[in-house]
Amino acid sequence: MAEKLCAVKGMNDIFAPESAHWEWLEAKVRDLMMRYAYRNVRTPIVEPTGLFVRGLGEVTDIVEKEMYSFEDRLNGEQLTLRPEATAGVVRAVIEHNQLYDGPKRLYYMGPMFRHERPQRGRYRQFHQVGAEALGFAGPDVDAELIVMAADLWAELGLSDVTLEINSLGQPAERLAHRQALIAYLEQHADQLDEDAKRRLYSNPLRILDTKNPAMQALVEAAPKLMDYLGPESLAHFEGLRRLLDAQGIAYRINPRLVRGMDYYNLTVFEFVTTSLGAQGTVCAGGRYDGLIAQIGGKPAPAVGWALGVERILELLKAQGLLPQPPVPDCYAIVPQTEGQERVMQTLRALRRAGLSVQMHAGGPDGQGSMKSQFKKADASGARYALIFGESELAAGQVAVKPLRADAQGGLTEQSLLPLDGAEAWAARLR
């Protein structure tokens, strides 16, 4: 016997009924994006490694420790499984001149890859939904994206999701704050953990996002970026707040909210929950006006967010909001192989009419007894059994039997219906 092969650790297979929850959530997202006039974009899973080094920043955790990178054996090109999608979307927009005829509102769904310790809601292959608005400079689109996410939580029925916002200002303002922050942290070098010491001169802003309890008092007293913002940055932030207030969107200003990628400026935000333990962020984003030029395009503003599908599903599960998995409308019981051609023609007609029908299929040992087929029909969750017995087929009919007390439609007791013109009575079984 050949050796059993298993999936890579942290990369999961998803079967029904869980896969039905994914489809349900994806359908909710697609409908929401359509109503906000965001259009779907699909980019490759593999991108040039340089895209993420240049776009995310060489000293980010993602680039330093988490990317799945490799060399193409055929041409020596350095490639990476995408750890996030924004850089790839921007690369695609630049490559195909998508901003030539004006700004774009785009959304995506798909798998991302990061080599980190797998834990609840956080895997090495994980899935994101994201929305990106490119070419818009005002706080109105920042607000639109935040309101869109809030609308999604409302439509899913989620509670315990709160919004945190901050402004990172512009590069010159961040530089002045960075210098003050480094000077402050140097004065307290003995209180820094090893991670903070490593980041002190390469990415000190990320120290403010530390989860180390021993450093909380230190970072709380650190210089605040908000105090270094100029009039234009403050006006952008106040414009966002005004629009959120007008829509009744509650939020908390979190001066320690900095995000993990280097490309953010001005607005940053996160939706967080207390229901998932340490993995509390379910959606995050912000403005990244410099990224398009950084990747090689003509300078243009942009803003977006991404949510973790696994975390949203975990949150829905924790709050008892996942829908029941779908079941077929009908289960076709076929006691004998004779007449299967006619059976399949009828089932195809019913499916074309919009019914979901599961057909009992036999094997080398035959179709199985009527009793065993009825057990399978009941286990399928179907509301009706379609019985294609020998006598029914001879008469050009099918027996339709309700299997559930709550079966809807015009049939409340077993009935004989004609095989010809099955589309005409299909609506009665919905």
From TrEMBL:
UniProt KW keywords: Aminoacyl-tRNA synthetase, ATP-binding, Cytoplasm, Ligase, Nucleotide-binding, Protein biosynthesis
Catalytic activity: tRNA(His) + L-histidine + ATP = L-histidyl-tRNA(His) + AMP + diphosphate + H(+)
Enzyme class: ligase
EC number from the UniProt entry: 6.1.1.21
Pfam families to which the protein is assigned, alphabetical: HGTP_anticodon, tRNA-synt_His
GO terms (BP aspect): histidyl-tRNA aminoacylation
Any single GO CC term annotated in Swiss-Prot or TrEMBL for this entry: cytoplasm
Primary localisation category: cytoplasm
Residue intervals of the Aminoacyl-transfer RNA synthetases class-II family profile domain: 1-335
Residue sites binding L-histidine per the record: 84-86, 114, 128, 132, 259, 263-264
Record keyword Transport present: no
MF (Gene Ontology): ATP binding; histidine-tRNA ligase activity
NCBIfam families referenced in this protein's UniProt entry, alphabetically: hisS (TIGR00442)
Family of this protein: Belongs to the class-II aminoacyl-tRNA synthetase family.
Name of this chain's protein: Histidine--tRNA ligase
Native species: Tepidicella xavieri
Species lineage: Bacteria, Pseudomonadati, Pseudomonadota, Betaproteobacteria, Burkholderiales
